Amino acid sequence: MSIRKSNRRRDGGAIFWLFLCLGAIIAIVALTTDGGRLMEERRRAQASADAAALAAARELYQLYPTAQGSDSKGLAKSAALASAASNGYANDGKKSKVTVEIPPKSGAFAGKKAYAEITIESHLSATFGAAVSGEDLVVKARSVALGRPAPLGLVALRPNGASSFVNDAQLALTLLGAGIYVNSDDPAAFDNQSNGLLSAASIDVTGGWINSGSGAVLTKINSGSAPIADPLRYLPPPDPASLTVRSNNKLTINSLLPRILQPGIYRGGIKIEGISIVIMMPGVYILEGGGLEVTNLATLTSVSTMIYNTQGAFPAGPITLNSLGKVVLAAPLTGYYRGIGIYQDRNVALPISLTGTASITNTGLIYAAASEVRLRGLAGVGLDLLAGGVVANTINIGGMGNISIDLLGNEPQIPEIRLVE
Questions:
Q1: Residue 140: is its pLDDT beyond 80?
Q2: Which entry of 10, 15, 72, 379 is 20 to 30 Å from 217 by CA?
Q3: Taking Cα atoms as reference points, which of 354, 372, 351, 367 lies closest to residue 163?
Q4: pTM for this structure?
Q5: What SS3 class is residue 130?
């Protein structure tokens, strides 16, 4: 039995189905083409918003010593708009709109100084999509950045070992607008032995912490935090060639008459004792061996000074401020060492000790990357020891008094410029 194949042609069938599905095909092509363009533009707009926010943050950081995080002159806003324009967002109101809010008006940092909020709205002309919607594609990107000198607070750099940070202040340890950072990965890296109060903007510990005292910790302790790099690792020591040698042997002052010291190099260090009254004039003081000691009833006052403790013809000595008299050390307000009161040679591991037997005020940051810094408040009346930030190998805080950590608006010029949203 033979089977005959039909040769009948079905002219027009495929064309009919093609026309029937043409609308759907056009819509799919439009979505595919414009969707890809939309995603690409979204990435470009976000990258540009991030760059603009960082540009504003850099300007806020530069202006911080005088503006304290505000942008009253609009310089940070101008920097953000210029950055956005350089990336193709000219803020013409048609193709793009760039909004700069300092401080931010929305989000977690709304109303906070030193933060900049950037929103980019991009109008992307549609291609095939115009046949469906007849409208441009709109892309929005938002970014928030922070720009200020880093509020260092207390930083213990040692990467391991128990008790890298010890708090045994029996009345109160207070950090104003700054945090505590402990890099040690030991389970007992932070040992809180205090029976008093501990308050800080934040407490971040790479390892763990133990609370062997009965005091109250008013700030959440974040264990398992990432360690932070030494924020002053690039800070060079002062150049001795630019300074005058003031003493070739240890300078010991024990006098009934006030003594005025000039900036320069003191070989063998400085010791102030008895009931001496000493004033250090503005500038950099290099202690080439011997260190600095203030004892008995001696009074020491400095005005815009930075003390660099190192070694030379004499071996290095510790810095010990333990006097029943008043000690006031005021860090430079301007210049390269702005906000830094004591800087110890990274190769010197001797301790730095400040004991507020009467009262000690050190408005500058203490930097001792290889050493322990000890802060003691003893009087128990009022504020016994006011210290600037500390960056050290380890930190040990104790005594019966009140200790406050506050740079008083004179932060070292260490930038904290980063995206936060």
A1: yes
A2: 379
A3: 372
A4: 0.77
A5: helix
| Tally of residues, the chain | 421
How far is it, in rounded angstroms, from Cα 319 to Cα 175?
A: 23
Residues 223-279 have pLDDT tens digits of 999 998 999 998 999 999 999 999 999 999 999 999 999 999 999 999 999 999 999
How many Cα neighbours within 13 Å face the side chain of 17? 4
The confidence band for 347, taking pLDDT boundaries of 50, 70 and 90, is very high
> 356 to each of 153, 191, 271, 320, 377, how far by Cα in Å?
19, 22, 18, 11, 5
The number of C-alpha atoms within 13 Å of 418 and in the hemisphere containing its C-beta is 6
Residues 6+ apart with CB under 8 A from 42: 139, 141
DSSP state of 25: H
Residue 100 token pair = 């700069």
Q: Which of 91, 105, 87 is nearest to 51 (CA)?
A: 87
Domain ranges of the chain: 22-149, 154-419
The answer to whether residue 159 scores a pLDDT higher than 60 is yes
Measured CA to CA in angstroms, residue 415 lies from 48, 61, 179 at distances of 22, 7, 16
- Bond prior to 237 in cis (omega within 30° of 0): no
| Range 190-199 average pLDDT | 91
> What CA–CA distances, in Å, run from 150 to 100, 387, 407?
23, 16, 11
**Rounded (5°) CA angle 298-302-303:** 155
Higher-confidence position of 416 and 244: 244
Eight-class DSSP state of 232: T
